[in-house]
Design a protein that fits this description.
CATH class of the largest domain: Mainly Alpha
Mean pLDDT: 93
Strand order of the largest sheet: 1-4
Helix content: 40-55%
CATH architecture of the largest domain: Orthogonal Bundle
Radius of gyration: 20 Å
Number of domains: 2
Largest sheet: 2 strands, antiparallel
Number of helices: 4
Distance between the termini: 59 Å
Structural class: mainly alpha
Length: about 180
């Protein structure tokens, strides 16, 4: 029953995967809420509306957003100041939804329609060329956008897991090859 509840809670979260709640994404936060290890008021992107939805689902009283986790503000998206970007690629790994395109030593860009506004790309940038910009339509983050962001996040997680498995397989084959070479000596 707890897993089902966690899935219901996760479905109500904004899926920005911003980690502001103190968890490594929306799903772990949802799991923590379902296990009474986290409060419903730790998600700044979800804000008051998200808290109201969670309170309704769980049959508990609403509470104000806990300021220890941030403040509610209109959704923004990352924007890279092209003239300042050095192409270091440090912003790529932290983006939970692969909304940043770029290659080593080439200017990067953000796909605004895919950006969740999580701000996780800002801190790793060594030249401070990433800023958060207001959206033309800040109210556009609806359930369809959250579902889309969740799918992109899951796709990235699956891709990264496949890369880990492929690397482990290559290392295993290399060790086997080295063992065969040593055995021939």
């Amino acid at each position: 029953m707890t897993l089902l509840l966690a899935d219901q809670i996760d479905a109500l979260l904004p899926q920005t995967q911003c980690t502001q709640c103190g968890y490594q994404g929306c799903k772990p936060y949802a799991q923590a809420i379902s296990e009474n290890k986290a409060e419903i008021n730790q998600c700044p992107p979800g804000g008051a509306l998200g808290i109201a939805k969670l309170a309704s689902l769980l049959g508990i009283d609403e509470k104000p957003l806990n300021p220890d986790f941030g403040t509610e503000h209109p959704r923004k998206v990352a924007f890279i100041i092209e003239a300042d970007c050095i192409g270091c690629t440090k912003c790529l790994p932290p983006c939970p939804v692969d909304a940043i395109l770029g290659a080593n030593k080439h200017m990067h860009t953000v796909i605004a329609d895919e950006c969740t506004g999580c701000e996780l790309c800002i801190a790793p940038c060594p030249v401070d060329c990433i800023i958060m910009a207001d959206l033309d339509n800040p109210s556009a983050w609806d359930q369809a956008a959250a579902d889309h962001a969740k799918q992109r996040y899951q796709n990235k997680q699956q891709r990264q897991q496949k890369q880990v498995e492929e690397k482990a397989e290559r290392q295993k084959k290399q060790k086997q090859m080295l063992a065969k070479l040593k055995a021939k000596k």
